[in-house]
Every structure is written in structure tokens, then in C-alpha cells.
UniProtKB/TrEMBL annotation:
Domain Enoyl-CoA hydratase/isomerase: 14-322
CDD domains documented for this protein: crotonase-like
Key word Kinase present: no
The species this protein was found in: Pseudodonghicola flavimaris
Domain 6-phosphogluconate dehydrogenase NADP-binding: 352-503
Pfam families xrefs: ECH_2, NAD_binding_11, NAD_binding_2
Reaction catalysed by this enzyme: 3-hydroxy-2-methylpropanoate + NAD(+) = 2-methyl-3-oxopropanoate + NADH + H(+); a (3S)-3-hydroxyacyl-CoA + NAD(+) = a 3-oxoacyl-CoA + NADH + H(+)
Phylogenetic lineage: Bacteria, Pseudomonadati, Pseudomonadota, Alphaproteobacteria, Rhodobacterales
Protein name: 3-hydroxyisobutyrate dehydrogenase
Example GO molecular function: 3-hydroxyisobutyrate dehydrogenase activity
Length: 640
């Protein structure tokens, strides 16, 4: 998990704490994905009664999204990273708003932009003496996003227009008035409250701790704000502010002159539309995404971030700074995005998927992808027929026009060969996802080749075997960028029950071979211990009873016991038919030792396990047997 966030379960509460106070807890892509994954798990966990979100440090709950990272990719012409980040962030915002269990957020200090998206959509939003909430996006060429337009469109009178255009900061009283928070609770009572929530799971504790909110200055200013921001267009609002003579009008005019005209004009139009439709948060987010999707290429986002955060000259060269802002510019930024538009869970768009390598694992995985309606084009060297999968004549043909290409191949060399044919045929921005088990070097080389060709890349080997592939219960361990993982995650969710983003390119293969090295070593240890027990006259059932509940327990003993008739049913009960074949274990152990060699790691047990499985498979009768058939092997042997 990212060190920027601490996700855990404490008592009856799913707990999320931002732990990046030095960066004002700015929200990045990995943090969004981690929150999303945890909340999905907690949704169906009956032991979890509610979710509590808080943050370390005094200065900020979360001062915004990590836009500097998006600036870096955007200025290199890569708009995809930003679009992917916003898409998944907005989906998370809607998910929080619609979450079936109570979500409590405790927001001290600054809560802005991305922080509002996490903290201000739950049903139990808490502020304190230091809380300052704002939507300052117009200052960096964006619109108030992350569901900000939804909140602003529902604020009383014209407060939404005022807050969205001027980025004015709200203190605790104002946040409650404007509908960004529910309860005022002094900060020194938060620790007790959180402890109570964790222990009891009783969300009523939040209201029980609330105190009357401090005065809301915006309530006093309401009439004037409603008058000043009543107009429909930015020009009219600006003219009204210029004509007015008050402190509030003067400071609002200063802000309106500082911020991006295009952003402000679009904000006004969005609030008007959302209010007219009494829109849902999903409708608001979908509209926001139209703007942010275009904001790097056609809007002021990159220039705004440059001026505010990168060069810090505070002198942005906005588009339409001459005061001429045609309606067409606003219409363009808010026009529907067609198939690129934001969708939510249950309305995912159909993908075109190239699937190469349709053997024991690949064939059922491809069939599972086709079932919910994805268009799957397959290719294998051997003739194959799979229900719902259209076959191509070459690997390149299967990859042409695909959103995602998945490979499920025997080894790293074949993967490299196939990648060389497929990558040039793929459309820019598509994702190459290898699910084979291969060496880390090949995984990294293929990822680099794909990325150099403008593609996303993921290495995502699986565990769960042929049974898991058929049942759609595989576990995916993925390496690659966060945007790449986000693209393929919905597909992994169809083919499996768990997908873990382990890190950058090669991290998935690293996780797989480390896991399987432990598996190979423990299987050998379990088998030799059973053989020793036999020779000591210890009954196998008794041995299982003791070890499976003592410190010698392991997955190989408890879940996959190599002794026939002992423990749960396993390949040992089926004459050691695989299951997981000994030669596949040998392959994985060789990969682990190859990686250990490249990384200069000392792995004596892994080395010995490789040698034992090599003897078993290549010189004895292990080929075609389950890897747990090491037990009958040891039974026959004597100490040398
Ligand atoms: P498999 O041998 O049944 O399937 C591999 C397929 O790739 C075959 O159909 C073969 O014809 C095809 N192929 C080979 N070269 C090709 C090429 N150049 N172009 C197109 N197709 C080509 O193997 P499998 O059991 O499906 O395993 C696939 C991968 O999954 C392996 O990397 C394996 O280590 C891994 N894996 C397997 C299991 C398991 O239990 N079988 C479990 C986890 C991971």
C-alpha cells in the first residue's frame, strides 16, 4: 500500500487516514485506487459498520489532487494520465456519495478540490475550529470538479456561483451553511469520537458529539451575493461586480479578474444546467469530466498549474483574457464525449480485447471476458474454438483496434516474440497486459517496449490454476503504472476475485515468483516431514491435527495437504493428478533463481527446491504429476 495513506480495520470501522501531511495530504492516483479497493471490500463485510476518514497533521485534511504529476505528463503531450486519474477519482467520489454504509469524514485545516471529493460526499461530514473548505479550481484553469459542481448547485441562493468563481474559503460555519459539512465538533474531541465509532460502529455518536456551529459570515452576505451573482453569463457577473461598491464586490472582482475566464464561464453554465435538472451527483461528475477531459488540450489547465504551482509567477496567460469569450467555447468544453464519456459501475463500456495464447488458462479466461459482452478476438498457434470468442489469423490481427491485448503464453521468450508482432499493430493509448508467468527481465523489457510505443503496459501473472481460470476466481498480481492498472482492473474483476497492484513494471512477476518460491519450499518441507513422521511411526492424521494448528502450519499443510485421505480434498486424493503440475513449479522456481541471480539475492532454500524439482521432473517420474507428489517420492527414499 502507498505510504501516503493508512488503510486498516479497527474494531467495527473501516479506517482511512491520509498520512502525507508534509504535502498537505494531496491526493494522488494510487491513494484513490487504494481507497476504492478498501471500501469495496468493506461494503460486503458484515463486521464493518461504517467508514471513518481522517488525516494526519494540523494544516490540512487534503488540500487537493496531486496536479503537479498531471502537469508533468500533460506537458509531454500525454493527456491520458490525467483523463484516467480524473475518471477513477470521479467514480470514487460517486461511490462515496452512494456508499451503502455510513461514511464519516473529519476535516481539519484545508479541504480543497480532491479533498472535497473524498471528504464532502459522505453522510457524516465533520468540521472544527480550523476547517477551511474551498473549490479553487478556476485559479488553475479547471472547474470545481470531484462533484464540486453538485455541491455548489445545491448551495442556497447564488452561493454556488460565488464560491465557484471566486474560490472563497469557507470557515466551519459557512461549510455547514453551504452544504459541504454536517457537524461542528471541536478538534480536541475527535480522538474520543473516533475511538467510540471504532468500538461501537454506531454512527449516531457523530451527531451526539456535535456542538452548535460558529457563525456563518456567508449567511450575512447572502442577499448581496445573490444580487451580485444573479446573472447568467460571466460578462454580466463581471459588469455587476464592477458597478457595485462594497468590500465583498471588490474582493470578488479581484478574484474573478485573477481566475481563468473559460473555467468560470463553464462553471456558471454547469451550475445553471445542474440546478435546472435537479441533477444527481453522477450527472454532475459526468458533466465535469467533459471539461476536465478537454482541459489540457483545449482549456487552461496546464497554463494554470504552471503559473500557480510550477513557476509560481502567478501570471497565467489565460485563453480569452481579452474579454471575448464566445458561447461556442463553453459549448465545446461541455459537449458530450461520446464513447470517452464518464461511466459508472454497472455501465462500463464494452471493450475490444485481443487475447493471445488460448491454452489451459487462456481459453477459459477469454471465455469469461466474452460472457458479459466484451468483444474478444483470440489468437493461438494451435487451432482453438471458444464460445463467444472470434478467432483471428495472426496475433497482430487480434491486436488491431483492441483497447486491451492480453497474453497468456508459456514463457518469456515467446512473450517477447509475440510482443514484437503485436505492439506495432496496437492503437495508441491501448494497454498491453501480460498474464503469463515469465521472468522479471522479460516482463520489464516488454513493458518498456510498449510504453515507448505510446501504450500502457501491465504484467499481471495469476494464481488459482485452471480451476480458478474456469471459475473466474483467479488472483492477479500486477506491475505497471496506476493508469494502466486502472484500465485492466475491470477485466481482472471479471476473470478473478482479487487484483493487487504491486508496483511498477515487473512487480507482478516479482510477487508471483516470490510467492511460488515459498510454495515450492514449503511443499518440500511438508512432504519430507510426512515421510519422516511415517518412519517414526507417527500416524498421518495425528501429524495433520497437530501441525495444522501449531507453528508448522502452512497453506501446503492446511489447504493442499500432500497426504492422501488427510485434511481437505486435494490432488493427493486424486492419484496426484494436477492441480498444479510439478513441471510448472519447476518453471517458477527457475524463474525465482534467475531473478535471484540478476538481483544478487542469496536464496539457498529456493535453489535447493529448484534442484529437487528438476530431479523429480527430469530424471524421475514427476512430469505430469501434481507438485505435491513429492510425498510419495520421499516415502520411497532413504537417507544417503
Ligand atoms: P498452455 O501451454 O496450456 O497454453 C499456452 C498457449 O500458448 C498454447 O495454447 C500455445 O499454443 C500458445 N502459444 C505458444 N506460442 C504462441 C505464439 N507464439 N503465439 C500464440 N500462441 C502461442 O499453458 P497454460 O497452462 O495455459 O499456462 C499459460 C501461462 O500461465 C504460463 O505462463 C503458466 O506458467 C501460467 N500459469 C499457469 C497455471 C496453470 O495452472 N496452468 C497457473 C498459473 C499460471
Amino acid at each position: 500500500m502507498s505510504s501516503d495513506i493508512d488503510i486498516r480495520v479497527t474494531g467495527r470501522a473501516g479506517r482511512i487516514t491520509f498520512t502525507r501531511p508534509q504535502a498537505l495530504n494531496a491526493l494522488n492516483y494510487d491513494m484513490c485506487l487504494a481507497i476504492d479497493a478498501a471500501m469495496r471490500q468493506w461494503e460486503s463485510d458484515d463486521d464493518i459498520a461504517l467508514v471513518v476518514i481522517d488525516a494526519e497533521g494540523d494544516r490540512a485534511f487534503c488540500a487537493g489532487g496531486d496536479v503537479a504529476a498531471l502537469y508533468r505528463s500533460g506537458t509531454m503531450g500525454n493527456y491520458r494520465d490525467g483523463r484516467d486519474f480524473w475518471r477513477d477519482e470521479y467514480r470514487l467520489n460517486a461511490y462515496i456519495a452512494e456508499y451503502p454504509k455510513p461514511v464519516v469524514s473529519l476535516m481539519q485545516g484545508f479541504t480543497m478540490g480532491g479533498g472535497v471529493g473524498i471528504g464532502c460526499h459522505g453522510g457524516h461530514r465533520v468540521v472544527c475550529e480550523t476547517s477551511q473548505i474551498a473549490m479553487p479550481e478556476a485559479g488553475i484553469g479547471l472547474i470545481p470538479d470531484v462533484g464540486g459542481t453538485y455541491l455548489l448547485s445545491r448551495a442556497p441562493g447564488r452561493l454556488g456561483e460565488y464560491l465557484g468563481l471566486t474560490a472563497a474559503r469557507m470557515g466551519p460555519g459557512d461549510t455547514i451553511l453551504a452544504g459541504f459539512a454536517d457537524h461542528y465538533i471541536p478538534r480536541d474531541r475527535w480522538a474520543d469520537l473516533i475511538e467510540l465509532l471504532e468500538a461501537s460502529g454506531d454512527v449516531a455518536q457523530v451527531a451526539a458529539h456535535a456542538e452548535p456551529a460558529p457563525a456563518a459570515p456567508l449567511a450575512e452576505a447572502r442577499d448581496e451575493i445573490d444580487r451580485l451573482f444573479a446573472a447568467e453569463t460571466l460578462d454580466e457577473v463581471r459588469a455587476t461586480l464592477e458597478a457595485a461598491d462594497s468590500e465583498l464586490a471588490t474582493s470578488a472582482l479581484k478574484a474573478v479578474r485573477r481566475n481563468s475566464p473559460l473555467s468560470m464561464a463553464c462553471t456558471l453554465e454547469m451550475l445553471r444546467r445542474l440546478r435546472a435538472e435537479a441533477a444527481t451527483i453522477r450527472q454532475a461528475l459526468e458533466l465535469e469530466y467533459r471539461f476536465t477531459w478537454r482541459s489540457m488540450e483545449d482549456g487552461d489547465f496546464l497554463e494554470g498549474v504552471r503559473a500557480q504551482l510550477i513557476d509560481k509567477d502567478r501570471n497565467p496567460q489565460w485563453k480569452h483574457a481579452d474579454g471575448i469569450l464566445p458561447d461556442a467555447a463553453v459549448r465545446h468544453m461541455l459537449a458530450p464525449l461520446g464513447e470517452d464519456g464518464l461511466t459508472f459501475e454497472g455501465e462500463e463500456r464494452v471493450m475490444r480485447i485481443g487475447f493471445i495464447g488460448l491454452g489451459n488458462m487462456g481459453a477459459p479466461m477469454a471465455a469469461n471476458l466474452a460472457t458479459p459482452g466484451h468483444e474478444v478476438i483470440g489468437f493461438d498457434m494451435a487451432p482453438v474454438e471458444i464460445d463467444g470468442v472470434q478467432m483471428a489469423a495472426t496475433a497482430a490481427e487480434a491486436a488491431t483496434g483492441a483497447d486491451v491485448v492480453i497474453t497468456m503464453l508459456p514463457n518469456g521468450q515467446i512473450l517477447r516474440d509475440v510482443a514484437a508482432q503485436v505492439i506495432p499493430a496496437m492503437k495508441p493509448g491501448a494497454c498491453f497486459a501480460d498474464c503469463s508467468t515469465v521472468d522479471v527481465d522479460s516482463a520489464r523489457a516488454v513493458a518498456a517496449e510498449a510504453e515507448a510505443a505510446g501504450l500502457l503496459a501491465v504484467d499481471a501473472p495469476v494464481s488459482g490454476g485452471v480451476g480458478g481460470a474456469q471459475a473466474g476466481t483467479l488472483t492477479f498480481m500486477a506491475g505497471g503504472s496506476a493508469p494502466a492498472f486502472a484500465v485492466v482492473k475491470p477485466l481482472f474483476d471479471i476473470m478473478g476475485q482479487k487484483a493487487v497492484h504491486c508496483g511498477g513494471p515487473g512487480a507482478g512477476q516479482a510477487a508471483k515468483i516470490c510467492n511460488n518460491m515459498i510454495l515450492g519450499v514449503t511443499m518440500i518441507a511438508t512432504c519430507e516431514a510426512f515421510a519422516l513422521a511415517d518412519k517414526l511411526g507417527l500416524d498421518r492424521e495425528k501429524m495433520f491435527d497437530v501441525v495444522s494448528t501449531s507453528s508448522g502450519y502452512s497453506w501446503t499443510m492446511n489447504a493442499y495437504c500432500p497426504a492422501p485421505g488427510v485434511g481437505p480434498t486435494s490432488p493427493a486424493d486424486n492419484d496426484y493428478k494436477p492441480g498444479f503440475a510439478a513441471e510448472l513449479m519447476l518453471k517458477d522456481l527457475r524463474l525465482s533463481q534467475q531473478a535471484a541471480g540478476s538481483a544478487d539475492a542469496d536464496t539457498p532454500m529456493g535453489q535447493l527446491a529448484e534442484a529437487l524439482y528438476a530431479t523429480f521432473v527430469e530424471e524421475e517420474d514427476g512430469r505430469g504429476m501434481d507438485f505435491s507428489a513429492m510425498l510419495p517420492r520421499f516415502e520411497k527414499r532413504h537417507r544417503s
